[in-house]
Structure formats: structure tokens, C-alpha cells
Amino acid sequence: MSAIKPLKLAIIGCGAVIDELHVPSLRRLTRQGAVRVTALVDRSKERMARFKRVFPEAVCFEDAAAAFRSAGAEAALVASPPGLHRAHVEAAFSNGCHVLCEKPLATSVKDVTELAGMSERLGLILMVGLTRRFFPSLATAGAMLRAGDLGGQVEFRCHEGGVYQWPIASDAPFRREAGGGGVLMDKGVHVLDSLLWLFGPMSVVGAEDDALAGGVEGNCRVKLAGKEVRGVMQLSWDQETANGLHIKGSFGEMRVDPNEFRWIELRRAQGAWERRPCRSSWPASLKAPAPTTKAPRVYEDCIYMQWIQFLRAVALGEPVPVDGRAALTVAAQIEAAYASAAPLPQPWLSAEEQTAAARRHWRNGAKQ
Amino acid sequence: MKRIAVLGAGGFVGARFVEFATLTGAVEVVPVIRSFKGAARLARFGPCWRRADAGIVEELGPAIANCDAVVNLTLGDFGDLAGPAVAMFDACAARKVPLFIHLSSAEVFGRMEDAGLHDDSPPVTGHWMEYARGKIAAEQALRERFRDTRVACVILRPGLIWGPRSPWVVGPARQMAAGSAFLLGEGRGICNLIYLDNLFHSILGVVEHTPAASGCYNVADDEVHTWSDYYQALARELGIEFAEVHQLAALEFRQSLLGRLDGIKQTQVGKRIKKALSKPAKQRIKRLLSLLQKAPPDSGLAPVGAPNVTQSDWHLQNTLHKPPTEKFTRAFGSLNRFSFDAAMAQTGQWLRFAGFARQ
User: Quick one: A252 and A145 in the same domain?
Assistant: First the structure.
């Protein structure tokens, strides 16, 4: 595939995201000679043994620092629980490694700011795994919005809900100290990044969630506003909701199903809905300076193209779609949403239950 | 206060148990989940879950110790629902839990063609649905333990459990929003519903009634509704004209090729094949299928949703009778707290929250 020497990679955290998302792309890149996985880090020997079969060259470590000291890695994929991201990214940087970090980069604005600063000071690549930047549906919608196709005074409504299906290896995502939060910190990072990318800078003007003291939210609603744009983002781990992004402007409306890579829907004034094909492509090889570009057809293509982009950044100095600074804009809004979270109204519950849910809301506990 | 172990607490019925218990304090619930992902619906209450495979006596035992009742809400592997159900019963016996409530399904009676059907009627034989065959096998295995005096075994047979978060609400709502909702034979078939909170209070009623007598009991909402009644009420809540629901003839079902393929995917063999495929193989198949999909032209009208009738839709919408529930009422009292209208009003609130109502 390329004359570039294989990048020696340490995988920090061998949970479901590696198995479900990264293994196919990394196998492909290993075959192409672009990547060599040299270290695996996890507390579970069983999980490391499973990945050792996939990447036989890799040495297993229970401790990230030891891996960086002895495995000679040039880059790290950080896929540990979010609460550990800061320590692991910092350890990677301290050993001169470029980093591709699974979202969220860290669970506080302070940590994200410091990691973004470190990356810039050290001249090391920091890319955050916000794969929706590669979705043709969102890229197409963004291009149309920027071209002013919907006019001004934009309003949007975004629903993303579904029964949680990740085959996770621990309950860390459901504990605030390890995961940093609930559905907002999980799915919300992706959705918020997409919305900020599409509509430009926005701030949280209201937030509600359903977490009780000691818990993390399974449902949340965040109101956002920016220059000539306002809207609502609603997320759920509970059940499928009316998923998708509905945008209204002074000239017309747009319906975007982020996971539909073939088209978005558009209508002018009160006319009929029309389908517009998605048009976006990404480099599909490491060749410089004119790479072949391809349009992602399935989600796995986005993961592969994310890796290509990371490798191109390391080898050719190209920019990455989401660096530490871009991650900071998302982290800031998430922190603002948590700081102002009020109890989510749940009018389908009995009056007694609604009162209890409001009284025992986690922010009430935090204030006490 | 009674202490109830809820097996399958990560499902929408189980999560409602935990929600009610947490918010009212009226009952103590021990939520048991098989895998960590099942904790997602419980995460907002704090880490309250116990992890155990309910089908393994030794693993389940510690989780249900000192409980007054165990409620089995697990979905399980339809190919083997009997083995785990018996294991749960045995775990109750070993841990001296006096009551085991097993959630079966009205589907054991199929389309309920016999108007004289009662709680102790034999189930249909050779049911086409793997889920129903699994439920029938589990009932049969548990009936053999009815004489075991150590544990009372109450088998409840709900129909379609509806309410906030129910797939029987989300599915039609999604179809109505997309313009693809349909009714067969003018929706005259019986829609055998039980509202989530009516089921849940029925279960609590059984627990409170300890010692309960082992037996099979049909449970359902008080009213008799057709599919047309149900869809009309849902459409009202969603702000959608009922006339937008497609009216189709209730002909004999003929499955499409895609439907057959989907059916195979849902069988145990299909699931095993899917599990055995490597990630790259799955990706190759996915990419291959994506290549078969035609790209849209530069511009074209978005098609209005077309109905897709599955065998399950056809089967359910052709239900002939509502099962009698007098046996349950005689044994445990009348425990339905919500009328259909009140339940639909609550469900409407959730549907609007979830964004399904027409803006």
C-alpha cells in the first residue's frame, strides 16, 4: 500500500470497542504493512490473550506505563474506560507517542484542555475517535447548511435513542467515577460533536436528565443555541426514539438519518420531500500527495478511513478531523449540561413517582 | 416489606419494577442481569444490579438469597426456555424462596381460535413461532413441579405488554410516523393487550398473596379491544390521521424472500451462524449487501412508507378471542389499576417525549 514504514502501535484497553470496531481495520492495515500492533494493555489476561491471537507480535502488559517503556510503540490507541483516558493519553505523550483516543477524550474540561495543550506543545498527533465526521449523511447536510440551502433562523430537533447493545466487559460505563456520566457522556459526545460541526458554535441553554443520586442518566434533553440557530438534542439508552435530525430554516426543511449513508431528505417551503444523494469522500490510502478517495458505504468504512486519516497525519502531517481543541468544544458543552442539569419531566409516571424522581435527582444530592 | 428478585431486570418490564421500587419504596427489588449491557436501563438508579446467569442454579443462588419471591422476566434463548426456567425453580427451592413467578405468554394459545379456551386448556401444538414453542416447553417443565410444595410456582400469561418504552408501542408509532402502518381485515382481530403497570401490579399482587397456589393464569387488561381500536387510540395520541393507516386484506400469509431470510436469521441455527462468522466476514457481507443497494438519482421524491407485513403481524392481527382472566381474579383479586384510556394517556405522554408525535 505504501512505502511508509509500519507504525508500531500500542492498544491501551482491550474491551468491546476494539473487538467490535478496530480489529477489522487494524488487521487490514497490518496486512498492508501500515501498522504493527506491538503492545496490548488490559487488566484482564483473558481479553489480552484473545487479541494476542489476532496480533501475535504484540506483547501483553497489565500496566500502560510498562508497555510504553518496553514495547517501543510510536503511537497508541487509547480505548480504556473514559475515566482513565487522561492518564493513558498523558503516558503515551510522555513516551513520544501519537494518540488516537476513543471518545470522550477525557471526562472534564480541565483534562481535555491539558491534553490538547500537551499535544500542541510536544508536536504529537492527538486524534479523537469521533467517527461521525466521516458519515456521508452529516457531511452532505453540513455542506448544504454552509451553502445556505435552508436559509437563516435555523431550528433543529435531534433524537438518538436505542436499547444499549454494546457487549461491554465491565459496568464501568454505568458508573460516574469511571464513565464520567451516562448517555450524554457516551452517545452525547458523538451527537454533540456532529451538531457543533453542522451548526457552528452553540452553548447549552438548558439541560435535563433522569439520573438519581448515585446514578448516571439514561435519558437526557439538552437545549442549545448559537448565532441564528437553536435546537434540542435528546438522547436515550432506554428505548428507540424517533431517531434522526430534523432541521428547519427560513427556506425549507431537512431530515437526516445519520446512519443512512445514501441520501438525506429535503423540502422547500411546504412542498414534497425529496431525496438528495450524499456526496462526500475521504482518502482511502496513504499515498501522497494525491490519494484515492472513497465514499464510506457502511459504518466500518468510517473506522477504516479514520485510521487512514490518523496514519496520514502521523506520516504526512495532514490535519485530523477532531483534535484536542475540537474535542474541547464538545467537552465544554457537556460539562455545562451536567452543571445545569435539572430533573427531566416524566409525566407518564405517577405523581408520587414524579415527585420522588425530582427530589432524588443527582444534582440535588450534589448541591447538598 | 417484601423482597423480590427480578431476573431479566434490564428489560423494559424489569426496569419498570426497579423504577417503581426505587421511587416509591413500596417494595424491595433485587435486580438481576445476565450481562453488563443489561445495566443500561438501571444505571440512572445507581449501581443496584447483581450479575448472574439465571439458568445456572449455583450462580443464581446467592443473588436470590433471602428473597420472598423470584420473578422470571428473562427473554432467553427461545430454543431452550425450559432448562433455565427449571434451574430458576430449583434455585428457589435450594435457597428457600417460597414463590417463583414465571412470565409465560398468551402466545401458547396461538391465535385463540377456541372461544371456550380457559387457563388450563392445552397449548397449541406445532406452533410456527419458536418463541411460542419455547414458552410452551417452559410451561410444561414447570407444570411438572406444581406438586413440589417447597416453592409455589405461578405462571402468568400476558398478551402484548404495552406502555411507555414497549416495542408494541414504539413499532406502530414508528410505522405511523413513516406512513407504513397497516391493519389487516380492517383491524377486526382481537388485540390482546396488558398495560405495563397492570402487569406489574398483578405480579406484586401475587407476591403479596403468598402463599400463592401453583398454577397457570391468564392476565390481560379489563377491556376487549380490536387492533383497529388500539391503532385509533395510538394515532390520536400521535396527532396522526387514522385514515393514513393502510387497510389491507387479511389474506393467507405469503412470506417474501427477504422475510424468509429474516426468519432464518431469527432461528437458533441462524443465530449460531451469525455468532460463528468472524468480524471481517460479517463486514464483507455487509459491504456486499450495500453494493446491491441502488444509489438514488440526483433528486427524486422521497417515497411514502410502504407496509411490510411480517408473519408475526399477520398472526397477531388475526387473533380471534381474548383469553379469560377470571381464574386470576378469583385467586388474587382484581389488580388492574389502569383503564385503557388512562393507560393510553400516559403512553401518549411518553410517545410525545420520545418525539414520535407529529410536530
Answer: yes
Both A101 and A163 in one domain: the answer is: no
A124 & A138 share domain:
no
Domain boundary among A225, A260, A281: A281
What residue in B sits closest to A234 (Cα-Cα)? B354
The closest CB to that of B298, out of A20, A174, A277, belongs to A277
Under an 8 A CB cutoff, do B283 and A276 touch? Answer: no
Distance from CA of B297 to the nearest CA of A (A): 7
Nearest-by-CA chain B residue for A240: B170
**Statement: residue B262 has pLDDT above 70:** no
CATH of the domain at A28: 3.40.50.720
**CATH number of the domain encompassing residue A144:** 3.30.360.10
Query: ipTM of the assembly?
Result: 0.91
Three-state secondary structure call for residue A255:
strand
Quick check: B287 and A298 CB within 8 A? yes
Q: Are residues A240 and A157 in the same domain?
A: yes
| Structural domains of chain A, count | 2
Are A113 and A138 within one domain?
A: no
Please give the Cα distance from B106 to A189 (Å, whole number). Answer: 42
Tell me which residue in A20, A24, A237 faces B41 most closely, judged by beta carbons.
Answer: A237
Strands of the sheet with B3-7, listed across from one edge? B50-51, B28-33, B3-7, B69-72, B99-103, B152-157, B215-218
Q: Looking at the structure, do residues A143 and A18 belong to the same domain, yes or no? A: no
pLDDT band for position B301 (cuts 50, 70, 90):
confident
Distance from the Cα of A95 to chain B's closest Cα (Å) equals 32
Q: Quick one: average pLDDT of A38-51?
A: 94
Q: Quote the CA–CA distance of B67 and B7 in Å, as a whole number.
A: 12
The three grid cell numbers given for residue B65, joined into one nine-digit string: 438469597
Whether residue A362 lies inside any domain: the answer is: no
CATH topology of domain B3-165+194-221+321-338: Rossmann fold (3.40.50)
With an 8 Å Cβ cutoff, are B279 and A24 in contact?
yes
Q: What is the DSSP string of A226-250?
A: ETTEEEEEEEESSS--S-EEEEE-S
The whole domain housing A254 covers 133-281
pLDDT band, very low/low/confident/very high, at A146 (cuts 50, 70, 90):
very high
Q: If you average pLDDT over every residue of chain B, what do you get?
A: 91
- The Cα A325–Cα A323 span in angstroms is 6
Taking the C-alpha atoms of residue B78 and residue B68, their distance in angstroms, rounded to an integer, is 28
Q: Does B295 touch chain A (CB under 8 A)?
A: yes
- How distant is the Cα of B167 from the closest Cα of chain A, in angstroms? 8
Best mutation target, A135, A140, A171, A363, to test chain B (most B CBs within 10 A):
A171
Residues whose CB falls within 8 Å of the CB of residue A242, separated by 6 or more in sequence, listed in order:
A159, B173, B174, B177, B354, B355, B356
Residues in chain A with CB shorter than 8 Å from the CB of B347 are: 348
Question: Is residue A29 situated within a structural domain?
Answer: yes
- Chain A residue numbers with beta carbons less than 8 Å from the beta carbon of B290 are 261, 297-298
pLDDT higher than threshold 50 for residue A368? no
Range with top average pLDDT, A2-11, A224-233, A286-295: A224-233
CB pairs under 8 A between A and B: 151
Q: Which residue matches cell numbers 390482546?
A: B192
Q: B50 touching A, CB under 8 A?
A: no
Q: Which of A23, A212, A276 has its CB closest to that of B279?
A: A23
For chain B, which residues make up each domain, given as ranges? 3-165+194-221+321-338
Cis peptide, bond prior to residue B211, ω within 30 of zero? yes
- Of the candidates A159, A277, A300, the beta carbon closest to that of B355 is on A159
Asked whether residue A95 is assigned to any structural domain, the reply reads yes
